[in-house]
Design goal:
single chain; mainly alpha; Serine Threonine Protein Phosphatase 5, Tetratricopeptide repeat; DNA polymerase, domain 1; 27 helices
Length: 445
């Protein structure tokens, strides 16, 4: 049986008033598919024409409708412009949400305060305030608010979303995940929790689960830019360049001035026409799988196992990135242990130092030898590459290349990075900019 579409025109055009009770009906209608989004765009055009011909109190009502319409279309700048020209608790509440989406947190707090004073549901406003305070780093204040409204835990998905956010901020990923999952149980359309679950799975390398959560976000407008960026990168990782292109295309439509989205779109489109060899891909996948085998899978002597653990060598791939002298220089690591490891490497068609010989790591060169660097400079080069706070795409490329520190990154040239899968000009410029901020640069720059 075909689902009956909710008449959005009757909701937003034929009725003079738009009240808070209608919001859930609007969200339900938008979740019915792309046709409803197209309908909302048409409704926007109708309301704009009415606004041009209206005056007085009627204008404020139309500004409210247009503000809500633009909010759900993801046009936050236009939403703010219209909602500022309206009045009432609903207008202030959506103004707060639009400011929050633009990361204008002080303005968002002012709007939410005005919304509560003019009669909007106090507990709902408090939950939004908790989220803003959390984003500003005021975790204790956010927790205090959640403690005051804890009676909402039994039925409110937003409460559990905010609880999950606090859990993440405090580094408790397990608690955060449980909260986000409870939020989605109460409201399957809660895009905030769906996105966080997608993001946490993305970080953990659970690509299929992450894609599933991100795709669910697409069903419930407004669709955040982060969702489209992260999903696009995951699609590229799985060679689904047509879907990735669609994500970036939506980003450029929403914001024609988003240069990053435009370049991502260009890279993904170029990948559609690149030659692909299934046989080469199978070989590559098999090779990566062997390189990722944990050393703990093999029966090594206690001495060998402890030595490798101290050197933070966890996989067979790690052993291809060290020289034999480095191993022998480790305390209690002798020829017997070396021979033991050589045997297991040979069994898998690998050898110690193989990646170094193949050029996957390079001696650090930056006009002077590393030993001549000051302690401060050596400390800087030893910092983890995660300190650069790279985008999802660039971070995944670092992982693929086995780059873990700033020193290892500085060993690479621009051309070497550009050879990595899905590493385009946008990612290269991002890496260069981040390194420059730390007083570093790529080899050859």
């Amino acid at each position: 049986m075909t689902e009956t579409l909710i008449d959005l025109r009757a909701l937003l055009v034929e009725r003079e008033e738009f009240e808070g009770s209608m919001v859930s009906k609007l969200r339900e209608g938008l979740a019915q598919g792309p046709a409803q989004i197209r309908s909302l765009r048409d409704i926007n055009d109708v309301l704009q024409k009415r606004l041009a011909a209206s005056a007085g109190p009627q204008q404020k009502k139309l500004h409210l409708k247009l503000g809500v319409v633009h909010f759900y279309l993801g046009h936050m700048n236009a939403a703010v412009d219209h909602l500022k020209q309206s009045e009432g608790p609903l207008a202030s509440f959506f103004l707060g949400r639009a400011h929050a989406a633009r990361q204008e947190y002080d303005e968002a707090l002012k709007a939410f305060e005005k919304s509560e004073k003019s009669g909007y549901a106090a507990q709902q406003v408090q939950l939004q305030r908790a989220g803003i305070l959390r984003h500003q780093g005021h975790i204790a204040e956010a927790k205090a608010i959640l403690a005051k409204v804890k009676d909402m835990a039994a039925h409110n998905s937003e409460f559990h979303f905010q609880e999950g956010g606090v859990g993440e901020a405090e580094g408790d990923v397990i608690r955060a995940t449980k909260s986000f999952e409870r939020s989605v149980e109460l409201d399957p359309s809660h895009t905030g929790s769906l996105f966080r679950l997608g993001f946490l799975n993305d970080l953990a390398g659970n690509d299929d689960e992450a894609i599933g959560y991100y795709e669910k976000c697409l069903k419930y407008p407004p669709v955040a830019k982060g969702t489209l960026y992260n999903l696009g990168v995951l699609y590229e990782d799985h060679n689904q360049y047509d879907k990735a292109t669609d994500c970036y295309k939506r980003l450029t439509k929403a914001d024609p001035f988003d240069e990053r989205a435009r370049l991502f779109h260009k890279d993904a489109e170029a990948s559609l026409s690149q030659f692909y060899s299934p046989d080469d891909e199978k070989v590559s996948i098999a090779y990566r799988q062997v390189m990722e085998i944990p050393i703990s899978d093999f029966e090594l002597s206690v001495r060998s196992r402890n030595c490798l653990k101290r050197m933070n060598l966890r996989t067979l791939g790690d052993l291809t990135r060290v020289h034999e002298p480095q191993l022998l220089a480790s305390k209690n690591f002798g020829e017997t242990s070396l021979d033991e490891i050589k045997i297991i490497m040979t069994q898998k068609g690998l050898r110690i130092g193989q990646s170094l010989e193949q050029g996957q790591q390079y001696e650090f060169k930056q006009n002077r030898h590393q030993s001549n660097l000051s302690p401060e400079e050596q400390a800087m080069l030893g910092k983890p590459v995660s300190d650069l706070n790279l985008s999802v795409r660039a971070r995944k490329c670092m992982n693929r290349l086995g780059i873990t520190t700033l020193g290892e990154l500085c060993q690479r040239t621009s051309d070497e990075l550009m050879e990595a899968k899905n590493f385009g000009v946008t990612s290269l410029n991002e890496v260069k900019e981040k390194l420059t901020q730390s007083g570093l640069k790529l080899r050859g720059d």
